[in-house]
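Researcher: Quick sanity check before group meeting.
Model: Go ahead. Protein one:
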Amino acid sequence: MKKILILGSSGQIGFHLQEYLIQKKYKVLNFDIVEGKSNDLRKKNNPKLIKLLKKSDYVFFLAFDVGGSRYLKKYQNSKNFIINNMMIMSNTFDLLSRYKKPFLFVSSQMSNMLYSNYGLLKLIGERITSILNGNFVKLWNVYGVENDISKSHVITDFVLKALKLRKIQMLTNGKESREFLYADDCCEALEIIMKKHNFFKNQKKELHLTNGIKTKILDVAKIIKKSLGKKNIKIKIINGKSKDNVQLNKNNKNNNFLKKYWKPKVSINLGINKIINHYLKD
């Protein structure tokens, strides 16, 4: 049985990925700081990490100090944010190199937005990955059920506001658009990249993981409102003049190379309904 180590296994994507891989009959090794101090990647030569690396056949490097746009707006220009992520990458890449493990570094489509410290840090991670036995993939706005609400991304944040407050409070005018990808589709693609690790490494092409469909933030709120029709949800724009100050309204062009080997299945309407149903049951 193939042993897969997930660094950041309790995070937004890691949480879904471990469930997905277990269903696929892999042996999953979890590692996340929320499980205790022994799981802190900022600790050099972490003995628990070394033990798990020796056991693993493949590593998903998901761990990062990050959250949704609210979190980035508040923290990405702080000293701690930058140093935390630099330490995470320095220590982890050092051990991945030492034990020559194949791995996938999960980056972001923001890695070319060098006015963003988050984007710059992800770019550095991509550069180091390219030198080592790794691939990197740029994620475009993955959404799904989240455990850490303080770091929640826009769709989950809107759903929870609608359910708890019966209103969706928007911090911008909602005209900015994003390409959203449901977590299950993301996990399927991550498995494909893992299984074709050497192939993608030899292609020397960027891997972009997105559904390729742009949706305005305001339209996301409208979909949630429609899905919860009987609850009479209100959409409230707190500051109509406020614009996207995380991505600065920059729209990248995605690379469709990965679409030759994988296709997303879940529409944004279906994905939002899945999240709503989960939290209603919860």
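Researcher: Fine. The other one?
Model: Protein two, sequence then structure:
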Amino acid sequence: MLLGVQVGLARPLQAGDQSVMSGIRKHAATGPVGVRAMGLAGDEQADLTVHGGLAKAVYAYPIEHYEYWRGQQAALGRSADPLPYGSLGENLTLSGLLETGVFVGDTLRFPGCTLRVTQPRKPCFKFNAVMGDPLAARKMQQTGYCGFYLAVDAAGSIEAGQRFELVPGPRETPLMTLFRFAPGSRQAP
């Protein structure tokens, strides 16, 4: 189930002692959102050398990992209230589909578009900044709670509340084989 669709424009983000442009801050989109080859209408990325483009047009994240991140925020003395969808920089907040069950080339067929799994997210310092935790990227690497990027195979529209079908691809490359776990890390359940 697609729980949330989020978009955001690139804007300044304070990362340590520097200000950088980032599109990591997302907000809920209302109603149908256009899906184009380069991503969702109303969404942008600041650094197209590492984010966005045809292979990383849309970023999906499983809601099942949100409990972990709420715990991390609470451990830092921040509110343990539910994080709003998009808090991890994702465009799509999904339920029932974890990274460990996805292969490169699998497609997610929505009523109005089709998206193809291309690669896991590899977090950077901007994730640390938006989470207010200098170890957030490392924690994502250690847990494997990375989410995954999607290419647009069939443009159209998408809306929160829609169901999707996982259509298996060639099933040759499990997504998690492309994600490098940090030494001493554990894999996601």
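Researcher: One line on it for the slide.
Model: Residues 113 and 174 are 23 Å apart (CA to CA).
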